[in-house]
Every structure is written in structure tokens, then in C-alpha cells.
Amino acid sequence: MIRPSAVSSLRSARPSGLAGVCGSCLALLALAQPLLQPPARAQATPQTVQPAGTDLNLSAVKTLLSRGDAAVASGNLVEGRRLYDLARDASRRLLGFYRDLSGSFRGLDARIPREMDDKGREALTLLAESNLRLAALFRRQNEPEVAIPLLVEVVKIMTPTNEGGRKAYQQLVELGFVITPYTAPGSTAGG
After folding, report:
1. Could you give phi then psi for residue 158, rounded to 5 degrees?
2. CA separation (Å) from 4 to 8, 15, 84, 108?
3. CA-based angle 166:169:171, to the nearest 5?
């Protein structure tokens, strides 16, 4: 809201004559210029932009898991572990980023949280897969004490109602960490 005293001070500060009119016109044109420009058109289809050299995406995590599988299959357990660890770390980071973005846009644009939630679920699944593969590797190396926390995390994040969670819990039973087998509703056998 413009105060009356401000208007009277503007009137008294106005230059007189042709210079004052031209100056006022130029000032109005400068203020109106953004309004006179045509609005920028939104693109009809959004384009996916992948920054060069970044491997922080879901397909990169899948690639790390595949490379880890190949390394383990060829007997290179050290390289397999390194690749599974990288996939696990990348999955955790992606999950955090997707959660942060989802929360930032909640209530503003429903499409973005929905997309981030979908990507977050996929990152969570990849994290569980990384943990299951690492746990299998540690079991193969006779290191159950390292495998158990990974399996417990899979049960926690995937829940026993999910196939990955049931698989992890079954491995905990096999390791002797838990005794009671879990029978999923509707299944005929434990685990």
C-alpha cells in the first residue's frame, strides 16, 4: 500500500517539462518490459538429463550388482564384495536423496513426491538385494557374524511379508540366529 506522504514526495521530486515526461515514460517501459515479453512455453515432454560422469542413479546400482555377481561367479570374492558394498552405499544415498526431495515437494506438486516415492522404493529394493548378496558372500566365507546384521536389516526394511524379507529371515534360521521359522499367511512351508 502506498502512503499518501510518499505520493506527495514523488510529485514534488518530478522533473518538469519534456525531460520529466521522457524520464517517466522510460521508467514505465523498463517496469513493463517483463510484462510485454511473451511467456516462455513449457516443454511438452520432460527430458531426462543425466549429468556426464555421474553414477548416482538406479541403473548404476543395478550395474554394480551385476558386476559383483560376475566377480563372485568367477571366484573373485574380494572384488565382488567391493562392488556389492558400492551398490549398497549408492542405494542408501539415493534413498536419502529421494526421501528429501519427496518431502520438499509434498503439498506443492503431487507428481514429484509420487515419482520420488517410486524411486525410493526401488532404491530400497536394491539396498535389500545388495545386503542379501553381501550376506551370501559372507556366509560363503564362513563369516556369519558379518552376515547376520545385513540379514536383519533386510527383514527390517522389506518386512517378512515381502519375498526378500522372508528369504533373509530364512537365512537367519539357517544360521541359528533365530529358531522359530516364519510361515507366511497362505504358504504351505516355513520361510
Report:
1. -100, -20
2. 6, 19, 71, 38
3. 110
pTM over 0.70: no
3-state SS assignment for residue 88: helix
CB 64 within 8 A of CB 101: no
- Residue in the structure block whose three cell numbers are 507428481: 111
d(CA 149, CA 168): 10
Calpha distance 135→141 (Å, rounded) = 10
Q: What is the pLDDT of residues 151-182, one digit of tens each?
A: 999 999 988 888 889 999 999 999 999 888 88
Rounded to whole angstroms, the Cα distance separating 91 from 97 reads: 10
Q: How far is CA 70 from the centre of its chain?
A: 26
Q: Would you state the cell numbers that stand for residue 37, as one nine-digit string?
A: 515479453
